[in-house]
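Example record

Each entry pairs one chain with its bound ligand, heme C.
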Amino acid sequence: MTPIPPPEDQSLRHHSFDGIQEFDRRLPNWWMVLLFGSILFWMVYWAYFEWFRVGLTGSQTVEREMEHIEAARLASAPTTDNASLWAMSRNHVFVEAGRATYATTCVSCHGDKLQGGIGPNLVDRLWIHGGNPTDLYATLDKGVLAKGMPAWVPVIGAKKSAEVVAFLLSHHAEGEPIEVQAAWIPILPK
Ligand code: HEC
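Structure tokens for the complex follow.
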């Protein structure tokens, strides 16, 4: 508590309520520090979590962790059946890894938006070799050598192949109609 000042410092404020008057004194420093400190804290906190959304909220942190755990579980037994590949396509960790592989290995022929080029469009519902996850994986495994699609699984390995299939599937919805395309006419760069 701030001690009562000596009589010579006891200047009074000009108002009086029911005959009660106040000393005219500065608020104590600890009080000012608390007030402005909490205002500053509020601004930094709000900017971090709400305005710029740099910080993850508690539930987002949990979701991220669960994705990592799920990714580790899927990677420990990399099965390439339809259900596992769909599950991988919903896992952020897998999809990001697949995106990186796509950017280095597939983009030159299939386009930066998967829109097609030398190789077919991979975001539409038309598929030459089948649109189920296992079909995509099989195309990657064997390639279509006569048409210029290399066999990738032997080159990049099963894990990276599963990741890149997960990345392709992340552009599709499970159960969407699959249409058969007879052939792809390459769009050659001008
Ligand atoms: C050198 C060019 C080239 C590269 C690189 C390439 N592809 Fe292809 N891809 C093709 C061509 C050409 C076809 C079409 C084959 C056909 O006409 O039967 C194709 C077909 C496919 C298909 C089947 C599409 C369908 O409609 O059935 C998938 C899936 C695919 N590629 C995925 C990939 C992935 C994933 C990568 C990267 C790991 C990749 N491709 C890299 C040229 C390429």
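The domain at 61-180 is CATH 1.10.760.10 (Cytochrome Bc1 Complex; Chain D, domain 2).
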